[in-house]
Specification:
The chain has about 1000 residues and is an alpha/beta fold. The protein has 38 helices and 28 strands. The longest helix has 23 residues.
Length: about 1000
């Protein structure tokens, strides 16, 4: 949890600042007894509003703490009365869990004994008899004791004998011995004689001491609180943080990630009405869980999202944030969306952390399961448990640039799942989301009822309001440039500012690009401003003005001092670099990109230095390159808009495809991570080792070369580059993907390549790719677990005439001296889908053949990707074996029948349980849909009757009763002990 600290401003007033837990500055902390009358304390509200009574007794304590901190060289300090919002139950609960760590991390703790005037009265101080001061005594390394008048009595070390005698706390504990070395009973005994205002606080004040979490339930009584605490202590798991670290995490996703550290928030006095509207929606009991802010490119959506996230973070309301970015790797798709949200959420509440941990422990494969399962088990489920508490909690999720997520299907699914948050009652969850008004998102919201979301169109806000805000933005940034470059006090002047506002056409990205371009001109800043002003007039669509500012930047990037042939060469290189950055499928550093596209480090550095108005170029050469705004990508790839600087997207993809293949051919080899053991497990390879042997550019090439090839539109032919690469490095490539944990992506790449290659023009390559597909699918599980088995088990047991086997047979290690006899060709079995823990009773393909559904005696229904074998969903709810499954004709729903006598209807995309049909008196053996998508009445056998729905329709004589039956739609097959089999076909019964 973030922590608020106090500081003294220049005018002598107290101000609050909020810090993330991993960026806390050095601080002091106050330990004291609250006044009997709480009104005597300086409160959180008074500090935030800057209005407090200096005559209050509590003010004296604040002044004492600030003066002591200053004397000890500490700028920040913490006092509980005014650093915790006591009226926010969520914040209060989290603070109680965090308090022990806050005291432990303090440089110094000042114990202010308001009832002590001299050392002889130390033992009589009520400070030693209060419950909450126990952790304040034990947690900090340094505790100093002061009288009411601020006279130092001594410290925890010099007074340890007296303190031990007064409190009966073992001296070892006072000296900092780990509290985990003491039994719970020993620590309980330390608090028994202490007093708290609320009985339950005797137990709650020990939560931090034991590092456990549980819901606070004032009213349960002291006995029940201690009982629950003891149970939590008994069941606490020391590896909680370790397991949670296994959640796949997109490091660039949070609003305050390093990637976004130079991005602005809204300036004061801008977006005033909009921010207030959003604030009201967050704070009030509006039933609409989702707020969709939609706007055209460059209208400032991300800046608003950062501002909302920052404000919520400062208020302790931010549950999680995820800022999508096209081509941004983990933040360019949804693969780590839900696990990243869950990871951030776990840091906001110890209780939620425990719930998420429990979910991961119960379902060890959750991080590889469907998005629906991850949402429900890692986020919605834990929040639902918090929802049962007696106090309300408030969280805000901020999701920016949803349209930058690469998969429209994933976008629709995420929105469908987020709506489920409306089921939470006591947890006040808000989802603030921004995007362009792209069709998939718009269609999803159009299908969503209006009582589920709030919608504001950013570019429809009054022009006067937008122009006012852009004026303030330009004024602020140009003032900074004026000061840095020592320009005249009247530069640029109100008239020029007005002209710039007109040219911006309501686009903040235009204003931001103009300011960067002017500022980077340094001594030529005035000339650059003139260039902008001499561009297009104020007429025309906003896009026209944005194009002009981008053209101005590009035209200025090549100095006139170069000759025409040199300029042509520089422009060609610039297009090569910019085009690659614009279409990258995952971000790369300048160093890595240079290696992929075969440009020297010097050349790429010189080119990038001239383009910082449109590119974010990190000072650190290992930092990722990115466009300042996605609108530049749209501009660069549009021939009409970009004109002479246009980048042919297909040509850019061809450059990257060729570069990736060339790089992999140079680097990849057998046992690239130098494990030297054929059974080495991928899960045991440390990330540092992986980064050492598989550099970022090599990992990029392994993951994306096929996609770039496809998007280039160029064909692959027998004996050429792609064919030669596969013949030399197929196994090396699959091995690298295995170490990276990306085998499924590799299989998908092979499937894509198979669809790309034309058999008629490239028969040998086509045959090789087909065989590679069979080889990879058959060995997927072992590649994922132990990649070096590619050269052992995978080759040894491949069919004798497999092209992959014959091509790489020389790679089989010599210690395999006698090879088993194997079949000549691949069998009909494409792959084995593993995951069920008991017999599989029923399977079915979706109508489009892309998915498989299976029902098992383990009580689950599973959905699979038919092409790659990847597990998509696990549908849980049945309490007995699942005997029959089927897809609806449109593939959107799945139906299952079970021995628990129920039929369940599921959403195939989200895994949501749509309906449970009850009433059967026996197990359900068969389920089916009619051609129009309606569920057919179920046929089953119960007590010698054929039953349709809930009606007995046909009695079976003794001679026709079976020991086994199978039902397919309206047909029943009977198998008898004699070996006789007979069939019965039934139409509809009226």
């Amino acid at each position: 949890m973030a922590m608020r600290l106090l500081a003294v401003s220049d005018d002598g007033s107290f101000v609050q600042e909020r810090f993330a837990k991993d960026s806390l500055p050095p601080y002091a902390i106050l330990s004291h007894r609250w006044s009997i009358h709480e009104d005597d304390e300086v409160t959180f509200k008074e500090i935030t509003e800057g209005i407090y009574n200096k005559k209050k007794p509590g003010y004296k304590k604040l002044q004492f703490c600030s003066e002591r901190a200053k004397a000890d060289g500490l700028y920040y300090f913490w006092v509980d009365t005014c650093c915790i919002n006591q009226s926010d139950q969520n914040e209060l609960s989290i603070a109680i869990y965090s308090m022990f760590q806050w005291y432990r991390k303090a440089i110094k703790c000042y114990a202010y004994l308001a009832d002590v005037v001299k050392e002889s009265a130390l033992s009589e101080s009520e400070w030693f008899s209060r419950g909450w001061t126990l952790q304040e005594l034990l947690a900090p390394e340094k505790v100093e004791f002061y009288t009411r008048d601020g006279v130092l009595l001594g410290n925890k070390s010099s007074l340890e004998q007296q303190i031990a005698q007064i409190t009966e706390i073992p001296i070892e504990a006072l000296r900092g011995r780990l509290l985990s070395r003491f039994t719970p009973e020993e620590i309980f005994s330390c608090v028994k004689r202490r007093h708290t205002k609320k009985a339950e606080d005797k137990a709650y004040c020990l939560l931090g001491v034991f590092n456990v979490s549980m819901l606070l339930d004032y009213g349960e009584g002291e006995k029940m609180a201690f009982s629950r605490l003891y149970r939590e202590i008994e069941t606490r798991i020391p590896d909680m943080d370790g397991l949670l670290q296994n959640l796949p995490y997109a490091a660039d996703a949070p609003f305050n990630a390093v990637k976004w550290q130079h991005e602005p928030t809204c300036l004061p006095d801008t977006r005033v009405d909009l921010k207030q509207t959003i604030r009201d929606w967050i704070e009030r009991s509006d039933e609409r869980t989702i707020f969709w802010l939609d706007g055209q490119a460059g209208t400032g959506k991300s800046t608003i999202a950062r501002t909302i996230a920052y404000n919520c973070f400062q208020q302790g309301r931010l549950g999680a944030s995820f800022f999508f970015s096209k081509g941004g790797g983990d933040i360019g798709n949804a693969s780590k969306f839900f696990t990243t949200i869950a990871s951030q959420l776990s840091e906001e509440s110890q209780y939620l952390k425990r719930c998420i941990y429990d979910s991961m422990k119960e379902n060890k494969s959750i991080v590889t399961q469907s998005y629906a399962n991850q949402w429900r088990q890692l986020i919605l489920g834990p929040l639902s448990k918090l929802d049962r508490g007696c106090r309300p909690f408030s969280f805000v999720f901020v999701i920016d640039a949803m349209d930058e997520c690469e998969s429209d299907t994933d976008i629709r699914l995420i929105l469908q799942l987020l709506v489920e948050a409306q089921s939470l009652k006591n947890v006040h969850l808000r989802v603030f989301l921004t995007s362009r008004p792209d069709t998939p998102i718009k269609r999803s919201f159009d299908q969503m009822s209006e009582d589920r979301h709030r919608h504001i169109i950013l570019h429809n806000i009054s022009t006067l309001v937008i122009n006012h805000d852009i004026y303030l933005f330009l004024e602020h940034n140009l003032r900074i440039i004026r000061q840095e470059l020592s320009l005249g006090a009247d530069w640029p002047g109100e008239k020029v500012l007005g002209q710039l506002v007109d040219k911006s056409s309501g686009l903040f990205i235009w204003a931001a690009t103009a300011c960067r371009f002017i500022g980077e001109g340094e001594e030529f800043a005035k000339d650059r401003l003139d260039k902008i002003l001499k561009g297009t007039g104020v007429e025309g669509a906003p896009e026209k003005h944005l194009d002009q500012i981008y053209l101005t930047v590009l035209q200025s990037s090549i100095p006139n001092s170069f000759s025409p042939p040199e300029k042509v060469q520089l422009y060609t290189r610039q297009r090569r670099i910019l085009g690659s950055i614009a279409i990258l499928l995952s971000p790369l550093s300048a160093t890595s990109l240079a290696k992929v596209i075969s440009i020297s480090k010097t050349q790429i550095t010189q080119t990038l230095e001239r383009l910082e108005a449109i590119l974010d170029v990190p000072k650190d050469v290992t930092g990722f390159l990115r466009l300042h705004h996605p609108s530049f990508r749209d501009f660069l790839l549009n021939k009409v808009r970009c004109r002479d600087f246009w980048v042919d997207e297909k040509e850019a993809h061809q450059i990257l495809a060729t570069g990736c293949i060339g790089l992999m051919s140079q680097i990849l080899k057998m046992d690239i991570c130098e494990m030297h053991a054929p059974g080495s497990q991928a899960s045991q390879v440390e990330s540092s080792r992986l980064q050492k042997y598989l550099l970022p550019e090599v990992q990029y090439a392994c993951l994306y070369w096929v996609q770039h090839l496809q998007r280039s539109g160029s064909q692959a032919y027998d004996g050429e580059e792609v064919h030669r690469f596969l013949q030399a490095h197929l196994l090396h490539w699959l091995e690298a993907l295995g170490w990276m944990g990306r085998t499924s992506e590799g299989i998908q790449a092979i499937l894509s390549l198979e669809a790309h290659v034309i058999a008629g023009t490239s028969p040998y390559l086509c045959a090789f790719v087909y065989d590679a597909k069979r080889f990879a699918l058959y060995n997927r599980s072992i590649i994922e677990r132990a990649p070096l088995q590619l050269y052992c088990s995978a080759l040894v047991f491949a069919p004798e005439k497999s092209i992959v086997r014959t091509t790489f047979e020389k790679c089989i290690p010599p210690w395999i001296q006698i090879k088993p006899r194997v079949q000549a060709h691949w069998s009909a079995m494409l792959q084995t889908l593993e995951g069920h823990t008991d017999w599989v009773r029923s399977v079915a393909f979706s109508p489009d053949g892309k998915q498989v559904v299976s029902g098992s005696d383990d009580g689950t229904v599973r959905l699979w990707d038919a092409a790659t074998g990847a597990a998509l969903q696990t549908l849980e709810g049945h309490t007995d074996r699942v005997r029959s499954v089927a897809f609806s004709p449109d593939g959107k729903q799945v139906v299952s029948g079970s021995g628990d006598r129920t039929v369940r209807l599921w959403d195939a995309a989200t895994g949501a349980a749509l309906q449970t049909l009850e009433g059967h008196t026996s197990r359900v053996c068969s389920v089916a849909f009619s051609p129009d998508g309606k569920l057919l009445p179920n046929l089953l056998i119960s007590n010698y009757w054929v039953v349709e729905g809930n009606r007995n329709i046909l009695w079976l004589p003794p001679d026709y009763r079976a020991i086994t039956i199978d039902i397919l739609k309206r047909n029943i097959a009977f198998g008898q002990i004699s070996g006789r089999v007979f069939c019965l076909g039934l139409g509809s019964v009226r």
